[in-house]
Amino acid sequence: MTGSPPTLPQPPLLPRLIGIGSWTIFLALFLVSAHFTNFSLQTLAQGIPDFFAFFGKMWPLDWRALPEIWQPLLETLQIAYLGTLFGGILAIPFIFLGSRNTTANPVVMWGVRGFLTLVRSVPDLLYAAICVGILSFGPLPGVVAIVIFTASVLAKLGSETVEAIDPGPLEALQAVGAGRIQQIIYGVVPQIAATMASYVLYIFEINVRASTVLGFVGAGGIGQLLRTYLSFFDYRGTAVLILIVFGVVLLIDAVSSYARSKLI
Fold first, then answer.
1. Distance between CA 237 and CA 243 in Å, rounded?
2. Is 50 exposed, middle or buried (0-12, 13-18, 19+ CB in 10 A)?
3. CA 13: distance to chain centroid?
4. Would you tell me how many other CB atoms lie within 10 Å of the CB of residue 228?
5. Distance between CA atoms of 157 and 80, rounded to whole angstroms?
6. Contact 154/87 with Cβ under 8 angstroms?
7. Would you say 84 and 207 are in contact if contact means Cβ atoms under 8 Å apart?
8. What is the pLDDT of residue 216?
């Protein structure tokens, strides 16, 4: 017995149109971006010899630069530490004011969220450049820039964590007449403490990396020394500096990752 082979059912029209439209937009964005940024694989390929020639100038390493590195490196870590500490403290009220289940007024909640979104839209390097213009050169503008970045990011992550907690303890505290502050202290904080500590450690890692480039705009730290080396074409000294920073960042990442794995 013979017959026509079964035909596969066609997917619905709307999902197919959405798929075709998505790929069309993706391709159009790629072409427009490549055109206006002069993106060219041929130009990149032509630059490969210069890329290796640049790193070739870094060898052999000039270890005489080593004594000059420690003080700016320590300053970089201090900028990251103070920025994370004060940023974390500053984020606390915004966490609870921006959370749906702990704020007293929806208008306040949306106002806080809008403000945090606005603050996060500016990169920390630009904050550092602005603060240098206000506070002059040195590590203080770097600390302020890191504080602003830390507070805005931590408040965003914290408010999302607060909204995901188990509502049971809060409802129990409300039933016995506990005030809003008591609900937060006894019903919310115990549930988010470990996660928030993990977030703080993670942001500290990011801040260490961010602090290494703040010196390019005069905000102190090892970035200032790096800019000086590059200005004088001291590539062998630059290589030593990059190597030390790389090792320190790896060490901090490893310690922080281990600590976070114990918290969560």
1. 10
2. exposed
3. 41
4. 16
5. 19
6. yes
7. yes
8. 82
